[in-house]
Amino acid sequence: MVASRGEEAGMMSRDRLFTSLQLGVPDRVPFAPRAREFAVRYAGYRYGDILTDVDKYVDAQLRLVEDFHADALWGYGTTPHFIQLVGGKLIVFDDDVPASEPAVHSREQVALLDKNPDFARIPALSACLRIIRKMKKEVGSLVPIIGYFPMPFRFAAEVRGLENLMLDLILNPDLVRELQEYFIPIATRYAEALIEAGADVVTETNEVANKNCISRKHFEELVHPYCVAQIAQLKERGIKSIFHLCGNWSDRLDLAVAEGAECIWVDKVEEASIVYLKRTFGSKACIMGDVHVVNTLLHGTLEEVTEATRESVEEGKPGGGFILSGSCSVPRDIPPENLHAMDEACQKYGRY
Amino acid sequence: MEQLEEIKELLIEGVLRSIQDKVKDALAEGHSAEDILNNALNPGMDDMGDKMAVGEAFIPEVLLSAKTMEAALEVLKPLLGEKGSRQTGIVVIGTVQGDVHNIGKNLVVIMLEAAGFKVIDLGINVPSQNFIDAVEMEKPDIVGMSAMLTTTMLKMGEVIQALDASGLRENVKVMVGGAPINDIFAAKIGADTYCKDCVEAARKAEEFVGKK
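C-alpha cells for the assembled complex are given below, as produced in the milestone run.
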C-alpha cells in the first residue's frame, strides 16, 4: 500500500480532498493534477497497452502519488470508451488516447439501444472498473480515487459524431434529446458501479458544449437540462462530482454551476479567473484549476511553473474550497521536473 | 440583384430545402453561375464568418450554412468550369497523426473554399510524411494542421521539422489550430501563425497569399 503525503503533513489525501470539496479548509491545498497519459509515459508504458494490461495503468497512477505526491488517483477512461455501449468501434492507437467512429445514425436506432447494458460485458468499461478496484486495493482510504464518465451531451457527440450532432441541434433536436435521455440512467448506474468498485468521486466533462462550440441558447435548451438531471441523480445517490469546464465557458458559468456539481474544474480562461470564480461561485462549489497545461506545464521553465502554481494557489486558497490542478489533463510529454515543481510549489504556498 | 440577396439570405439561414430551387430560378432568369457564386454564396459565407467572429453564430450555424453552400454548388459546379473557379491559393490541410478529430479542420476547409482556395484535405490521422508528400506534389501556398489533443499536438512540430529537413519549409506558410493550441505553442514549434477558429484561418490565409 502506498503512503500518501498526508501521513507526513497531517491530513490524509482523501480527507484533504473531501474537505475542499465540502468547501472547508484542509491542512493544505490538495494537489490533484489529472495526469493519465503523462503517468503512463512516465512509468515507461504505452497507452495502447492499457486495455489489455490494466496493472500498468494502476502502477502508473501509484507512481504519481509516490513520486509527485499527488492527492488523488485518476481512473482510466475517456469518452471514446463509451462508444462500446452502443456497439461502436473503439480505435486504439499504439501510444495515443483511443478514439471512436460515429455509431448512432437515427432516432430509430436510439429506440433500439440496450437500456440496461451489463458493464462487465463491455470491454472498455469493464477495464475501467477493474482499474478502480485495483487502485482501491492499493490505496485503501488514504488516497481518493476519481472515476470518469462524460456528460450526456458529450456522450451524444461521441456516438453521433461531433459534426452530425452539431447539425442535429438545428435539424434534428429530438435525436439530441433522446440520446441524452438514453444515456442519463446508464451513466448514473455506471457512476454507482465506479463508487462500488472503489471510486470516491466522479468527474464529468462536456467540452463540446462551451462557447467555442454552441450558443448559450442551444446550451440552455438542449444541453443544460440534461446535465441538471444527470447531476441530480448523482446527488440522490450521494455521489460527489467534479465537473470539468473544458474550454471557454465564460458566458454560461452561471448555468454550469447551477447544474450542481460539488466542484467546478476550470480551464485557464481570462474571463473566468480563479479569483472571479471564487468570488462569484465559491459559496456554491469548490473551484479547481488552473495551471496552464500547455504554456506552462509543457513548455514552461521550472521558474515559470513555480510562479504559475503560486499564483493559482494564492488566488484559490483563501477560505478553502480549492483544489490545485492543471487547466486540463496534464499533457503526456511534459518534462517530469515541471510536475515536481508544481508539487513543490503547492507544498510551499498551499499550507493553511 | 434581389434574387442574389435572397440566395445569400437562404445560405445564412441555412435553408437547405429551397436553396437549389432558388439557384435554378436565378440561373433561369439570366444570372451566371459565377455571378451567383461570387455575389451571393461567397459573400454569404463571409457574413457567416463575421457572425462567428462576434459570437452571433456558432459551429452548428456555420456548418448548416456550409451544407447549404454545398447544395447550391451541386447545381452550379457543372456550369462553372475552369473560368469560374477563382483560385486564391492552394492549401494542404490535415489533422495530425494519432488524432481523428475533424470538425475544426472541416470548418476551416469550408471557409477556405468559400474564400476561393483550392484545398487538398488529407483527412485525419495524417502521418508527417503525407504532409511532405502533398507539399511536394501540390506545391501549396499554405500548410494547415489541426490537433485536438495535447498528446497529438506535438506532431505539428514534427511536420514542420520534416518540412525543414526536406527543404520545403521556405515555400509554404504553416497555420495551426485546435483546442489545445495557442499563439505561444505555435511560435514554439515554428509555425507561422495560430488560428483560433475557421474564420481567422480563412482571413490569415488570404493575408498570406496577399489577397487582403
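The mean pLDDT of chain A is 95. Chain A touches chain B through 35 residues (CB under 8 Å). Further analysis is deferred to the final report.
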